[in-house]
Structure formats: structure tokens, C-alpha cells
Amino acid sequence: MTAELVRGQNHPLSQVRLEIRISAGTPIVAGATLGDEQGRVHGAGWVAHPGAPTLQGLEVSKQAASDHRLAVDLDAMPEAVHRISVLLALPVASAGGPVRFGSVAAPFIAVTGLDGTQVASYTVTGLEAESAVVALELYRRQGAWKVRAVGQGYAGGLSELLTDQGLPQARQLADSINEAVAQGLARSFPPPPPRTADADRSRQPAAPAPGPDQSGPASHGASAPQGVTGSVQPQPTGHYGPQAPHAGGRTPDGPDQSAPLPTHPGGTGAGDPAAVSRPSAPTADTGPISYSHPRRQNAAPPPPPPTAPPTPPGQPARPVAGDATGWSMEERLYNQVWGMFEDLARTAAAFRSAVDFADSRMEKELDQVLSDPRSRIGGQGDAAREAARAKRAQLVDQAQAALDRDLAQLTAEAEVVEPALPPAYARWDNPVWHGYRVPMETPMALRVGDLHLPEAPELRVPVLVRLPLERGLWIDSGRADSLDGSFTDSHELRRLALDTAVAHAARLLAVHPAGDFSVHVIDAAGSGAQALAPLVQSGVLAAPPAVGAAGVADVLARLTQRVDLVQMAVRGGAADSLPPGVDTSEQLLIVNDFPHGFDDRAVTQLRYLADEGPAVGVHLMMVADREEAAGYGPLLDPLWRSLLRLTPVPDDHLADPWVGHAWTYEPSLVPPGSQVLQQVLTQVAAARRSWNR
After folding, report:
1. For 477-554, where are the E strands, in sequence order?
2. Is residue 298 situated within a structural domain?
């Protein structure tokens, strides 16, 4: 069982040859220091960094990237080494990237064996102004090695971090590391070629740039960043609080990779042309690992060669599904989808900025005309005004032409990507569901809806969130109007909200292997019986929906106890020694019609599950109207802020993390009259029964 660590927790290491996989969603520097029994670093020779990536038993990446793989051989460590600290740092501001971890996706770190088996993982959360962090450490205690989640950040960057570890001349070493990173970025990320009027939005490596900003969107007039992006999961605006993105990256000037989004098994480079194959694990009799083997791969493989017919000269390249980077087709499609999201944000931002410039220029010229008394007599003023309006129209036409060209390319890409998506990413009307089979592995992400902008209402981009869920979902049943002008009464909206929750729960069940995901339902008033019927009748629920105050208390008590037991087991380093009755699968609790049936104790337990549950596999899905829960006052504010708000009707409450566009969200619902949901749930139920035998 993989240990999901929180800050301060440790976990024993049963293997000595390890990989440390890092996914950050934006280019970062990864390194490691070797420390003695007191944790002191004795000199620059005890630090592995991009300028000196190899030490005895240790190899780190040679450049900044959004994904890294560090290799460690604990048996090869010198006897004087008792601690290996894994360092993460943002490139210096001159490299064009973000300057603090609070503005990017939370880095995810996984310690794995050479066969890819995950031993422990840790998401470095809670960082704000820090630009460097000791993420985790491997340490020797009584002859055995363990891993500990640290998460210690430093606002002063690498210099402050290395000084804190007792390194002499820490500032000089930090400067040399930053210089090596800058040189690596200059070699690996040449600027994209200029666009021409008839040029293709070709996929070229671009200079790295800021990833998602969790602390707030950028100004609306700014152009979107180029380069590798982060977990570009959109974040709610207003009082619903920021959303932690998940990882990825893309290399525009045209469409190419995404987020948080976060934790996929990509490599350390960004399209490293030398990366050709996944390294194979050495056999037991090969002796110490040679981490400098010329065939060792530190980067995700480049995208496969396009299979589309050759492009005629002067025409845009024909899009191909899965032409982003990644180890698998699933990962490539994931990166491509989030890259399309970034590209649409960027091209819309460029258009809006161009129109704003044209308007401001026309206003300035008109002001100049009106400020000259001579232009108010005769036709001179009229001619000047017509000239200003003509210039404005010319600039807007040029911007519209560029927007139309980019939208045509993105639309063509969406037309080939959508049919190629696996079930976890596909709409419910995608034919891929007709061939559905219960999977053997959990996917890296899940589709929860679509997004579009006013400039291209017909172009839908899937909203993908990483699995396992890092935060709960709140299906808002309190909005009675939608953006299309239709009006929905409160009763109908509640039904739509619960239908949306059922569709999300069914998809979560469908994309997990049998026995790996369980769903519980609280329907205290019994008002959701009709909408919940597909889950109840198929037999996929862990138990019938809980009704009444007694049912609410029973479900919350069982799930709270599970969270407590798993937390104690993980903290005690005995994650494999849970009591026999504990269900170790991922758990989802759907709460309908909150706060009906909830007393103060139940509300406290619900908040506890929302805060502590995701780290140990217990997730929350609220179907509620916030206004009706206002009677609890500020008590529930932290709960609402911790959940991702989704709506059962189209709504523009989501914003991208680059330029703050208000994106229209549409839920992923089963088409009326379709039997796909029943067919899928029937297979899930059969697989669960077979697994339980």
C-alpha cells in the first residue's frame, strides 16, 4: 500500500534502489544535498544540482523542467551520509518563470522502486512566498532507511536553504546553480519562430513561463504565458476560494501539453530529443547502478510522429490526437487537452488585448481632435474622426483574422481529439462508452465538464481533474438562472444538481478497478430517491442511502473512524497493518440536501472529512444550496472554500490561472433517454460482486 504522507510523517523504505518522481506543473529546479548525522552539508561536493548532477549513488536532472526523475542507490551512499534532502526551487526571475511557490501548482513527489511501484508520495502544500523548499528527505536510522515529508520553504531561495543546511559559501553555490539552470534553459527552450499571416501554429519549444497562479488571476489585459504550463485546472473566482491546480505542460506557440495539472509519470525534460525509451531495471547481479549510462532517460518521450497525411505547403498542420508529450496515449491526450485549454485562453487574451488597444488609440486620437479648436470648424474635424475610426476598424479586423485562424486550428484539433479520448476523459455520448470494460488501473484524470469562451461558444474544452481527487466537489443547487437565459425553478434545479452528482459518481466508479472505489450516500430527507435510482438499483453503492438523523450519524461516524485509523497507521509507519474490517479503497460520500438532518456534531464531522479525508482516500461531494446553509454562519466557510464548485446549469464561475478569463462551465451529463449509464453501472456492479467473492 502506498503511503500518502503529510508534513512531518515518515515511512520505511523496503528498497534501496529508488526513483524520486517530481511533478510540479511549471519548470522548477530539482536537486539534492547529502548530510551527516546532524544534517550538515560539508561542502559543494555534497550537493547534486543541474551544474553537477551526479554524486556517488545519486543523480538529479540537468535542467529546470516541470517533471523530474531523480535516481538514488542507498547502498552506494558513503558511510558518512545519513540524510539525503530533495530540494526544489523556482528558476530565478530572469528566467521568465514564477518567483514564489504560492503562485504555482503544489509540487507532487513520489518515491518509487525501479519497476515503478510507488512506495510513498507527498504533495508539498502550504507554500506562499517561498521560492525554494526542502520537499522530503531520505534518512538512515539504526541501519535502516526511511523517507520523511518535510515541506520546509525558504523565501530567500536556494541561498537561504543551503545556508540553513550549514553549507559554507552557500550564496556562491546558489549563484552557480542558477547560472547552470539559465544556460540549460537557453539551450533547451529556443524562442518560437514568428508567426506569419498564413503560417501554421506549429508546435515549437517555447520559453518556460509561469504556471497557474493559485493566489489570484493575472490582469485581464495581459497576454497568456507561453511555455510549459501547470495543472491548469481552472480555479473558482470570488468567495469560493482558489483551487489547487494539477500538472502538465505544453509548448505553444500552438497547442501542446497540460497540469496539475500534477503527478503523471513524465520525465524531467521538456521534449528532450535524446529521450528514446524508458529505462529498464537492472538485474540483481549487475552490481551498483551506473546512473550515467548513455541510454538512461530522464525525460518523457517526445510525441510520436504524426500519422496525418502530409500538409500542403502554406497550409496549417493537420492536427493529430495524442501528439503531446507523455509515456502513454492517455498521458499524451491529457497533456494535449490541457494544452488546448491554454491555447484558447491565450488566443482570446490576445484578441481582447488588441481590441482594447484599438479602442484606447481611437479615443486618444479623438481627444486630440477635440482639443484643437481649429478642428471644430469645417470638415477637418469630421475627417480626423473618420480616420481614427478607420484605424480602429483596421486593427480590430486584423485581430479578428488572427483569432479566426487560431480558432479554426483549435476546432480542427478538438474534432480529432474528442473521438480519441478514453472513457475517463470522454463525454457520455462518446461511442467509447459502448465498448466499456471495467479497467485494471486507475486513470490519471477524470472529466467533470466542459469549458468555453464567448469568442468561441461552439469550441468546448474538457475539464480534467487529477486522480485521486485532491479536494471535494460542491454541486451548487442554489442558482435558479442559467447563462442561456432560461429559468429553472428551485425544485427542478435540485433534481438537476443531484443528476449531476450521480453522473460524476458513476464516472468515478467506472474508471476505477473493481473494489478500488466505494460510494456512500446521505439523503437525510429521502428527497433524492428518483435521481439516485441508477446507483441504488444497480447495486454499486456500499450501502443503501442513509436517511434521517440516525443514518447521517452512522455514515459520518464510520467514515470518520476510517480516516482516523488510516492516519494513525500512516503516521506510525504501519500502513499495511490496518484492522481487517477497514475498507482501504477510495471512498466518496455524497451528501444531498445539506444541512437537513445535520446537527452541530455532524457538521463538525463533515468539516473534518473535507479537511483530512482526501489525504487518506475519503472524498466529499456536496449537493447543496449555500444560502440555505447560511444559518450556520461562518462555521461552514472553510468547508465551502475547500471544495470545487460545479453547477448543474451553464455558469461562468470558473477562471483560468493565467489571464483570469471567465469561462463558461457546462456539466458532464448523460444525454436524455440514453441507457449508457445503466449499462456502465451494470458492468461495475458485476465486477464488484466478482471481486468480493
Report:
1. 517-523
2. no
Q: Would you say residue 293 lies in a domain?
A: no
Specify burial of residue 199 (Cβ count, 10 A radius: 0-12, 13-18, 19+): middle
pLDDT at 257 over 60: no
Q: Which residues contact 479 (CB under 8 A, 6 or more apart)?
A: 493, 647, 649, 651
Cis amide leading into 580 (omega within 30) = no
Q: CB of 192 within 8 A of CB of 226?
A: yes
Residue of 96, 521, 62 lying closest to 292 (CA atoms): 62
* Per-residue model confidence (pLDDT) at position 630: 62
What total of structural domains would you count in the chain? 3
Reported pTM: 0.58
**Residue 153 and residue 70 in one domain:** yes
Grid coordinates belonging to 448? 467533470
For the stretch 94-120, pLDDT in tens is 445 568 888 888 899 999 988 788 899
In percent, the amount of the chain with pLDDT more than 90 equals: 39
Vertex 439 angle, CA 437 and 441, to 5°:
170
- Full domain range(s) for residue 212: 193-268+323-420
Mean pLDDT of the chain: 78
User: Does 199 share its domain with 173?
Assistant: no
Q: Are residues 507 and 643 in the same domain?
A: yes
Q: 159, 187, 215 — which closes off a domain? A: 187
Rounded Cα distance, 1 and 340, in Å: 35
**Assigned domain for 227 exists:** yes
> Looking at residues 63-73, what average pLDDT do you find?
89
